[in-house]
Structure formats: structure tokens, C-alpha cells
Predict the structure.
Amino acid sequence: MTRHLLPVALAAAIAFPALASAADTQPPPRIVVSGEGEATAAPDMAILTLSVMREAETARAALDANNDAMAAVIAAMKSTGVADRDLQTAGIQINPRYNYTNKADGSQEAELVAYQVTNTLSVRVRDVDKTGDILDRAVSLGVNQGGGIAFTNDDPKATITEARKKAVADAIAKAKTLAGAAGVSLGRVIEIADQNVTPVPMPMNAKAFDAARAAVPVQAGENAYTVQVTVTFELK
């Protein structure tokens, strides 16, 4: 009888260490927190969106007039120190313009009256102090649409690094607070994941071209760079 029970007892003795080993491999308790950090920097570059629109009876005449006006604008940009690499055509549109008249039967009759050609230029101004003067010269030479301005930074790496450090410090502070409230202490950091929030450059709208006669007053302000991180800690 004893001889038959021995294999069963031996199997049980082998199984218990295996269960204990499985329990030992369970991951320790952990906490996951998020942190956010922000750093600011004064813009060192302005991006202008300037458009020239010309109208004529034929598309050819409208395009020729537009070409002359845009060529003058580009030459003025270069004369103020804007490099070729900072001038980029953003789009050219040729559109017919119609006059619509109501007929007796309730329908409308379309009459082609002109063609409109719009040429849009994107300009990177690396000397922010010149932004107002460049806008004024562009308007004087024929820019009559657009006027969007965005202030940005050519190389924001150092500012983003500062924001990233603040985000990690914020996450650590939150984790300590939560762990203390729960009566436990923080262990080692298991994982850190960060997500850069690319800032939207500070926009400014400059629509009042017809009234512009002196250098356009602009304020660059500052750009904010925000970084969010997620940190996982062990709990002791």
C-alpha cells in the first residue's frame, strides 16, 4: 500500500516548488503617472504668407500682370536679405469670374467677365525685427491677399529639453504624492515614454493691407513648448 502512495507523494512534493516559483515571478506592484512640462522661447523666425491677385479679361493677361507683380515682390524680399532658400511658392490659382443675372424663367445666366490669377509666396524671415518692414514693402509692391504670420523657432531643441526635464520632475512629484497617500514608497523607474507636443506657431492676422502706409507694427511674443511624459514606477 505504501509503495503505491510514494509516487503520488513525490509528485506533490515536486509540484509545490513549481507553484512557489511561479508566485515569485509575479511582477511587483507598480504605479503609472503622467507629467507635463513647459518651456518658452522668444521666436527667432517669422513665416509670412503673401498673395498677389491680378484680374484681366483673359487668363494670359491676368497671369502676365501677376508675374510682373510677384517678380517685384520676390526681388524686394531678396533686397532685404531674405535668402533664396527662404522663398517658396505655395500655390498658383487661375479662376474665371462670372456675373450672374436672373432670367424671367427663374434660371440664371452666367457671363464670363474676367480671369483672376493668384500667386501665393511663403517667406521665412530670420530677422524678426524686419517683419513689419518686409510686410509694408510687399504691400506697396502689389501683395493684396494673405498676410498670415506665424512666429516660430529655427532650432527649439534646447527649449524642448528643458520642457522634458520639467515633465519628468512633475511625474516624479505626482508619483511621490500618490504613493505617500497610499502608505507605500516608490521603487525604481521601470519605463518612461514621452510625447512631444509640437507647438502651433503664434499666429497673427494682417488683413488691413489697404490701410498700410507705414511699417506694419508686429509683436513676436514668445512660443511655448509643452512635453508630456508617462512614467512607470515600482512600488515597495
